[in-house]
């Protein structure tokens, strides 16, 4: 595991890097948009941290012909040499896995789980092999019940494959669910009870993005010893 800054070190390594920490935040539309901006703003509030954010809507690991995330990852790793990679990549992946030749497997089938899981594991292990830590965000609840069930299925593969690749799976499900694990449209944050999702029931509103950034960064702060300015 990599060292994230001179001020702190990860649990499994005993030497510190005297440079600032570079955190690479990547993903699809949520990272390209409001959630990514709120994560970037909050992470920049830590000491000696530099943020690089790169997102592309409508992409994921299931359909590399839309964007080859593995190739993009390798490009970003080479260009920025991050210490930590935070990825949010599953939003568009409740779909058939494909390659340049066409569909390979239908979503949810054992063959889909195998191919998709291998892609996740390769993505994560590439980050780890570069000397950085890999954090893969799970996908939260969705308003549409069927979609939410699909997301639960995807998250199981995402978690297992992330951990198999040597990364950390950051579970976000409970952040936006009630006591029974069901979607909630409103949440109170900083004294304001507002809608946390956009009208599509998928993407986050500004209020929801601020709340999610707070929750995600609290976990990163605790796990990696990030220190506020």
Please summarize what this structure is:
With 229 residues, this protein is α/β, with parallel strands linked by helices.
Topology of this structure?
Blueprint: E1 21-27, H1 29-32, H2 34-43, E2 49-55, H3 69-80, E3 84-88, E4 97-99, E5 102-105, H4 110-129, E6 133-137, H5 145-164, E7 168-170, E8 186-189, E9 192-195, H6 206-224
Parallel strand pairs: 1-2, 1-3, 3-6, 6-7
Antiparallel strand pairs: 4-5, 8-9
Helix pairs in contact: 2-6, 3-4, 4-5
Principal-axis shape equals globular
The H-and-E topology, N to C, reads as EHHEHEEEHEHEEEH
Lateral arrangement of strands in the main beta sheet: 2-1-3-6-7
CATH superfamily: SGNH hydrolase
Largest beta-sheet details: 5 strands, parallel
The CATH topology: Rossmann fold
Count of helical regions: 6
**Secondary structure tally: strands:** 9
């Amino acid at each position: 595991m990599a060292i994230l800054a001179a001020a702190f070190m990860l649990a499994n390594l005993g030497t510190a890097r005297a440079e600032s920490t570079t955190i690479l935040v990547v993903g699809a539309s949520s990272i390209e948009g409001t959630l990514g901006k709120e994560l970037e703003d909050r992470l920049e509030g830590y000491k000696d941290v530099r943020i690089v954010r790169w997102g592309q809507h409508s992409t994921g690991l299931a359909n590399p012909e839309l964007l080859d995330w593995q190739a993009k990852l390798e490009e970003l790793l080479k260009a920025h040499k991050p210490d930590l990679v935070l990825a949010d990549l599953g939003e568009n992946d409740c779909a058939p896995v494909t390659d340049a030749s066409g569909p390979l497997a239908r979503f949810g089938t054992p063959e889909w789980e195998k191919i998709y899981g291998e892609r996740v594991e390769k993505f994560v292990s590439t980050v780890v092999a570069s000397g950085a830590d890999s954090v893969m965000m799970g996908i939260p609840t969705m308003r549409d019940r069927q979609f939410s069930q699909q997301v639960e299925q995807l998250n199981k593969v995402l978690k297992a494959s992330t951990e198999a690749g040597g990364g950390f799976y950051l579970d976000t499900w409970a952040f936006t669910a009630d006591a029974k694990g069901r979607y909630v449209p409103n949440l109170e944050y900083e004294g304001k009870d507002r809608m946390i999702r956009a009208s599509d029931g998928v993407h986050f509103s500004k209020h929801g993005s601020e709340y999610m950034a707070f929750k995600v960064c609290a976990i990163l702060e605790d796990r990696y010893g990030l220190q506020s300015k």
